[in-house]
From TrEMBL:
InterPro entries: DUF6699, F-box-like_dom_sf, F-box_dom. Residues 1-51 form the F-box domain. It holds the Pfam family DUF6699. It comes from the Eukaryota. This is F-box domain-containing protein. Gene3D superfamilies: 1.20.1280.50.
């Protein structure tokens, strides 16, 4: 009896097409064959590697926009530097491949971050805004004492509360609440 499961490539591709981002990342470390499957076009959307960047002023269908799942797994206190933003418990975000992946799917060249009632932060990258660029912008934003101090003891990242379009049709990620 064989010690490995031998299935046709088409079956593996079908299985992989139903996996989420983090499960695909785990599969990449299983074997070279699995890693090669994650590089196929069927997995690019899930892996936040889409090739088509929506330019500033481009048409965005909000129903199809997904925010990178890494944002939901981050440990981040508003007053910290970028090297203290963690993915999970102890992995520095900047040291992960998620840092260089697009912040959204489809990727956008222009993104605004709305934090509570302050003026939105704008991020522009013709090659597509990345997870790391978003977190760098948030770190810079909270380096301003007025922004940091007004949160009181509510400084813990809880993820994005909303995704919407501004009046010019550009993507806005909004956060209204921080944990204590």
């Amino acid at each position: 009896m064989a010690s490995t499961i031998e299935l046709p490539k088409e079956v593996w591709l079908e299985v992989f097409s139903h996996l989420d981002y983090f499960t695909l990342k785990n599969c990449m470390s299983v074997s070279k064959a699995f890693k090669s499957f994650t590089k196929l076009p069927t997995c690019q959307k899930t892996m936040f590697r889409s090739k088509t960047i929506i330019p500033d002023g481009g048409n965005i269908n909000l129903a199809n926009v997904r925010v990178h799942p890494a944002f939901d797994c981050m440990s981040y206190e508003c007053a910290t530097d970028l090297d203290e933003v963690y993915l999970g418990d102890d992995t520095v975000l900047a040291d992960t491949c998620a840092a260089d992946e697009y912040a959204t799917d489809p990727p956008v060249a222009f993104l605004r971050l709305r934090v509570v009632e302050w003026k939105p932060v704008q991020i522009t990258n013709k090659s597509g805004v990345t997870v790391l660029q978003v977190m760098k912008s948030l770190c810079r934003f909270f380096s301003n004492e007025n922004h940091r101090d007004s949160r009181g003891d509510h400084t813990g990242w809880t993820g994005w509360d909303e995704t919407k379009l501004d009046r010019k049709g550009r993507l806005v990620l909004g956060v209204d609440w921080f944990d204590s």
